[in-house]
Amino acid sequence: MPTFITIGYGDQAGYDRTDPTVRDRAHAHDKQLAKDGARIGRAGQSVQARNPEGRGVQREYGTFMSSELPVAGFMLIEANNLDHAIELVADTPCAIAYGVVEVWQLKD
């Protein structure tokens, strides 16, 4: 079964303006995904790591990519195909609370 990594983007303002009943349903959906085997985690501080030509590790705190919304969390899921993966994440908190979820299929 293909594996997908998802990146959820969202902010507190979008979360706060979402109906609490909808948010509760989204959190219940996340709990069910986790129970079914998805690995879900909230985003912590990011660190960029580089090792140009193997001369020594350089690290810089902060994001490399930028977006309108901050990264909120990640999920690793198995799904039958891309459409199934999208269906699984469509009711997660970032997707329903004015954010967005990117879905990336991991290649073997």
Automatic annotation (TrEMBL):
SUPFAM superfamilies: Dimeric alpha+beta barrel (SSF54909). This is Transcription initiation protein. It comes from Microbacterium faecale. InterPro entries: Dimeric_a/b-barrel (IPR011008). It comes from the Bacteria.
